[in-house]
Amino acid sequence: MFIQTESTPNPATLMFLPGQTVMETGTADFPSVDTAAASPLARRIFAAGGVTGVFLGRDFVSVTKEEGLDWPQVKPAVLGAIMEHFQSGEATIEGPIAAEHDEQDGPDSEIVAQIKELLDTRVRPAVANDGGDITFRGYDRGIVYLYMKGACAGCPSSTMTLRMGIENLLRHYIPEITEVRAVAA
């Protein structure tokens, strides 16, 4: 098995491409070892050491390393953990996969549906190429709340991505939107 790696805009996060499907549908975010109970793959990667976050996409694994460590110190163990997982035949996720976007009903349901559609068709494919994901968390009085995962979480350019990219896109198509904010999980 040959696993390729790619850098991301976040210098603390590296994308690992195993050359096969990681997640059949959706994504899974494990921002700490405590959240990785449902994923044998994420648990293995955290056990490799020096890892603070694991994000699983359709055909990639984004791994965030501890501050103060360099990738040459962490990368070999992560590569070994990923290879060991795929050779084991174990499932990537055990149990149901959480919904990608939060639900929101009410008077703004049409606006919320438009926001989700734009995120799914215009935003999420682009950020997946950089090893991350952005999901809808809420909408209230013109403000859209988004959750940034994988390489997007903690990325130095994430504020610029939100303001200049996503906010401008959403405001162009949905005039009711005045601002986009990142929220914690």
Features:
185 residues; 4 helices; GMP Synthetase, Chain A, domain 3; globular; alpha+beta; Ribosomal Protein S8, Chain: A, domain 1
Distance N to C terminus: 34 Å
Overall average residue pLDDT? 89
Main beta sheet: 5 strands, antiparallel
Number of helical regions? 4
Beta-strand content: 15-25%
The CATH topology label of the largest domain is Ribosomal Protein S8, Chain: A, domain 1
Structural class: alpha+beta
Order of helices and strands: EEEHEEHHEEHE
Widest sheet, order of strands: 1-2-5-4-3
Into how many domains do the coordinates divide? 2
List segments where confidence is low: pLDDT < 50 over at least 5 consecutive residues.
none
Shape: globular
Radius of gyration: 17 Å
Q: Per CATH, which architecture of the largest domain?
A: 2-Layer Sandwich
Specify the helix fraction band: 25-40%
Top CATH class of the largest domain? Alpha Beta
- DSSP strand count: 8
Corresponding CATH superfamily of the largest domain: Scaffold protein Nfu/NifU, N-terminal domain
Would you kindly provide a written description of the structure presented here, covering whatever features stand out?
With 185 residues, this protein is an alpha+beta fold. The chain folds into 2 domains: 85 residues, Ribosomal Protein S8, Chain: A, domain 1, CATH 3.30.1370; 75 residues, GMP Synthetase, Chain A, domain 3 (2-Layer Sandwich). It is 34% helix and 24% strand. The chain contains 4 helices and 8 strands. The strands form 2 sheets. A 5-stranded antiparallel sheet has the order 1-2-5-4-3, with helices on one face. A 3-stranded mixed sheet has the order 6-7-8. Helix 4 links the parallel strand 7 and strand 8. The longest helix is centred in the middle third of the chain and has 20 residues. The N and C termini lie far apart (34 Å). The mean pLDDT is 89.
